[in-house]
Structures are given as structure tokens and as C-alpha cells.
Amino acid sequence: MIRRYSRFTVPKWAKITLFSALAVLIILLGCGIYVYSTAQNARTEGFEASEDFALENTDLETVDEVTRFNGEHIYHVVKGKQADGEDAIAFIKKSEKDSEQIIYTTDTADEQQVESSWQSACGADCQMDDVRLGLYDDEPAWEVTFRDEQDRLGYSYYTLDGSEQLESFALSNQYQ
């Protein structure tokens, strides 16, 4: 009997190698998704509790957004509206749920004004990374994260209305 072989027959070692590589890639993808999911959950952990706490202990009626601010302590920044429709912001320490420790303000927060003030102060050689609500000397403020002309990481703090710069500094770039 004559054995006939297909032109598309693949050697056994090639199949094993291909399936092994595919299995390793699937395992690595699964591990990557798990690590990312775990990191995201740790970052947003407690947002719902802070939202509920702010609704119970402040004049907030609705919550629009909850973010995180890392300063001297970790704060959850709860932005929302009062019953009269006025915007309000509550800063709640992540570790302490004490109604006496809430920093609450109804001052207007103007992000576009902050970006404009920062751009004119820093110049064209700076690149903005992020603008977020935060605290400066336990007072509500804007924190602008940026890279300067020497590629150093910098921080600038502005009043909530964005009209006045409170402080600006850049970290040393000694290890590059």
C-alpha cells in the first residue's frame, strides 16, 4: 500500500511548539488582566462608601464624580450638587470617616481657568499631564501635574477659581 501524505501535514514537534506558545501567551494575558484589575480595584476602593458618607453628612444631594487625591493623607474628592443646584465639593479622608474631618466647599472650581493660568505661568516648553482637585495647606485647591522643559516632574497648586498660583515646584531629574 502506498502512503499518501498531504502537502499540508505539519510535523508533530511544530504543533506542540505552536500550542505551547499559545498556552503561554494566554496565561500571560490572563495574569496581566488580573494584575490590572486588582490595581484598579485598590485605587477605587472605598469610593462608594465615601459617596454615601458625603451624602449623609454634607449638604450634597447628588454626586457627579468621586476621585482620589494623594497628599499628606489619601482623600476621596466627592463632587456633586446641593438641593439648590449649586456645585459643592467634599474632601473625605479615606482612612477616617469622621463628619468633623470633612472639608466642604461651595466655591466654584474652574478647571479651564486653571489650565490657562498654568500655561501662561509655565510657558510653551511645559507639557501638562493632569489637573485634579486636591488640597493645599488643608484648603481646597487645584493640583496641576506637568513636565517642564528639562523633563522634570512638576506640581503647581492653584486656588479653586484658578486665578492665583499658590506654589509650584519641580522634582530633581538626577537619575536620567
TrEMBL record:
Residues 51-92 form the Cell wall elongation regulator TseB-like domain. InterPro entries: Cystatin_sf (IPR046350), TseB-like_dom (IPR041401). Keywords: Membrane, Transmembrane, Transmembrane helix. The keyword Endoplasmic reticulum does not apply. The keyword Transmembrane helix applies. The chain crosses the membrane at residues 12-36. This is Cell wall elongation regulator TseB-like domain-containing protein. It comes from Terribacillus saccharophilus.
